[in-house]
Automatic annotation (TrEMBL):
It is a multi-pass membrane protein. InterPro entries: AAA+_ATPase, ABC1_TM_dom, ABC1_TM_sf, ABC_transporter-like_ATP-bd, ABC_transporter-like_CS, P-loop_NTPase, Type_1_exporter. Keywords: ATP-binding, Membrane, Nucleotide-binding, Transmembrane, Transmembrane helix, Transport. The keyword Transport applies. This is ABC transporter permease. Residues 19-312 form the ABC transmembrane type-1 domain. The keyword Nucleotide-binding applies. Pfam families: ABC_membrane, ABC_tran. The chain crosses the membrane at residues 16-43, 63-84, 153-170, 176-196, 260-278.
Amino acid sequence: MGTYRRLVAYVYPYRWLFVIATVCMFFFSVMNALASAVLYVAVKGFYSEGYVTVDNIPYAPSFIQSIQFPVAAVPLMVVGVFLVRGIFDYTSNYLMADVGIRAIRQVREELYQKMVNLSVDFYSKGRTGELMSRVTNDVGFIQGGITDVLVDLVKQPLVILINVPMVFIWGGKMAFWAVLVFPLVLIPIAIIGNRLRRLTRRMQERTADILSVMQEIFTGIRVVKAFNMEEVEIDRFNRINKSVFDFFRKTVRVTAFQRPIIEVFGAVGAGLAIWFGYQHLPPDRFVAFIGSLFIFYEPLKKLGKVNSTIQQSVAAGKRIFEVMDEVPTIQNKPNALKLELPIKQIDFEKVSFAYEGNQYVIRDLNLSLREGEVVAVVGPSGAGKTSLVNLLPRFYDVVKGAVKINGKDIRDLDIKSLREKIGIVNQETVLFNATVMENIAYGRPSASLDEVRQAAAAAYADGFIKQLPNGYGTMIGEKGANLSGGQRQRLSIARALLKNPPILILDEATSQLDTESEREVQKAIESLMRGRTVLVIAHRLSTVQNADRIVVIEDGVITQVGNNDALLKEGGTYKRLYDLQFNL
């Protein structure tokens, strides 16, 4: 139950609301117990003329004996008891629901915050749909585990404890047989709970698979349609959905089994008590006794449901805390240093890097960049080019060697100050479903409209932005779906220009563009590169011919270094790639 204790700990900040709700539940339980007394006086009124006298309850406190009141007061007592009971019931339920909702909000916010702050390598291990499922479905499961369960965990035991004296007051020794069955009810509840927890976890994992498949298909819908794979994908979705249905049906079957079991045990105890009650109790006490038994066993059924909900929330909570307990691989050292300007030199010193184990994608690599220098990295696919540039902003850390800026190991630098000095334009342009201005100002939310326009103009984007329906206030759709590839890339470049970083990484920035779009984007890139230290990755050698130096990487090792003319004269891999691209 360690997982559930962690979940309930989120209630602690709202403990005073919890205390007030608990007090209300206590008075609700008292009113609930008095319902059997209402039944007693109602039946007693049938045998009375004008007045009801309490006079045949041997196990009641002495001050209750011989109480007398008019028969006309009985309806008022009924209304009064249930009115007060209803008020305390509403107040306690509302306050506990409020506590639960606040706690769930905190869980979801902490989970999302944790996910955003985890290192890049965490996202390379899992699927987007799986992570989304933990924030949505799993947190939804624990909402019932906190909100509904807390209400019943406090209220139902109070109802039982306060009602037990009433059972013995009305039933005397016969009540023993009804109460005796109570501990036996816990056995099937415990057995069913363990199975339910296992089923729920497996069902949640398959539900995450549904989200993952949907995310893949919706983002790749053009490919699905181009290859006429609609029926195949529908069939794949249906198979996963059926497995979720099967687990859900098993869960319902196990959950539904609890209530009848509890009712059967309760009926056995009540039957024994009723048998003896027929022989020893007068009608008024007998009716009150039966009423108190119903009041006694109803919380037992709800507690059985509580156990089911707890098991489901524990299964969901474990999946949530798996993420919350994840430790980022990239963290600041204590007393990390701020990276100060200017950036004089960047050095990769005997760098080796592997994503897993000893499968190195970069081996013993040495490379230096001077201030204002443009260095292009080229090579075959899978050579380690992107892996190399991902080390500079510390998306990953080197396994051996060091990356240094101004002679300082970047692992000793404050991560935020390091990344503030680096601008990145990727092969896959990442834009958000927001306005043009919000996308350009993503790294500088406080930037003015004039500053955003200047950056857009420098990126050759101002012209097409003005033609959009609402200009800089136009919503561009998810991932910039309403724009062309060249327009999206120019917005990305404008975003980097507005950030104005001294270090720039261009990762295949024009590889997915047609010739006309590439020409426009290349002008924007030339504007972006001025006065910065630039590391360029490119498949198209036409985009790097003017670089100060070109570095050729093969299998994670630098095999050639020089400018375009020198490398062409030298021959080797660069000359071969050049000839292939220019059909020489």
